[in-house]
Amino acid sequence: MIRKIQKEDRTILVEITNKIDIFNTEEKDVAIELLDDAINNPNSSYITYIYEENGKILGYYIIGTRALTDGVFDLYWIVVEPEHQKNGHGKELLLHAESYVASNKGRWLLAETSSKASYEKTRNFYFRNKYSIISEIKDFYTIGDNLIVFGKYFNLKG
C-alpha cells in the first residue's frame, strides 16, 4: 500500500534513511529535513508518500513542483529499506510518483543524482524505468562528481 506520510512515520523513516549506505551525512540530513517539513507543515511543497506492506514501512518518496514552472516536478528522494531492495518496491513508488505527476498536469518528472560509482545502481534504476539523461554538469558536487539529471516526459495530449 502506498499512502501519504503521517506524523507517526517519522522515526522509522529516519531509521530507513540512515541505513542507506550511499547517502553521506549531509544527504541524510537533507532527506530528514524534507521529511520533517512534510510532516510538520500541512502546506508543505514536499509531497511525501510511504510504501507500507503488512503494516511495516519499507520506503518512501518525496516530490515537489519545480519553482517557476507550470508542470515540472522534482523527485527529491526515493528510498527503500536496504533489506527490501530489489523486490520491486522502488519501482512501485516511482510509478506512484509518475501517476501523481500525470494526474496533476505534470509534463516532466526530474531526478538528480551523482556520477560517482556508488550511484551506479541508482542510475541503472532510472534507465530501467525509461528515464533519459536530460543533462550532466561536470564537477558539480566535487571535482570528478558530476550532477546527472534524469527525466521522463509525460505527454498530456494523448
Kindly describe this structure.
- It is a single chain.
- The protein has helices at 10-19, 25-40, 89-103, 120-128, and strands at 2-4, 47-53, 56-65, 72-80, 108-114, 132-142, 145-153.
- It has 158 residues and is of the alpha+beta class.
- 32% of the residues lie in helices and 35% in strands.
- The two termini are 28 Å apart.
- The model has no long low-confidence stretch (mean pLDDT 95).
- The protein contains four helices and seven strands; from the N terminus they run E-H-H-E-E-E-H-E-H-E-E.
- A seven-stranded mixed beta sheet has the order 1-2-3-4-5-7-6, sandwiched between helices.
- The relative contact order is 0.13.
Terminal Cα span:
28 Å
Please state the overall shape, judged from the principal axes of the Cα atoms: globular
Number of helices in the DSSP assignment: 4
- Roughly how many Å is the radius of gyration? 15 Å
The largest sheet, given as strand count, sense and whether it forms a barrel, is: 7 strands, mixed
N-to-C order of helices and strands: EHHEEEHEHEE
> Overall mean pLDDT score?
95
How do the strands and helices of this protein lay out in sequence?
Layout: E1 2-4, H1 10-19, H2 25-40, E2 47-53, E3 56-65, E4 72-80, H3 89-103, E5 108-114, H4 120-128, E6 132-142, E7 145-153
Parallel strand pairs: 4-5
Antiparallel strand pairs: 1-2, 2-3, 3-4, 5-7, 6-7
Helix pairs in contact: 1-2
Summarize the model shown:
This protein is of the alpha+beta class and 158 residues long.
Keywords:
158 residues, alpha+beta, 4 helices, 32% helix
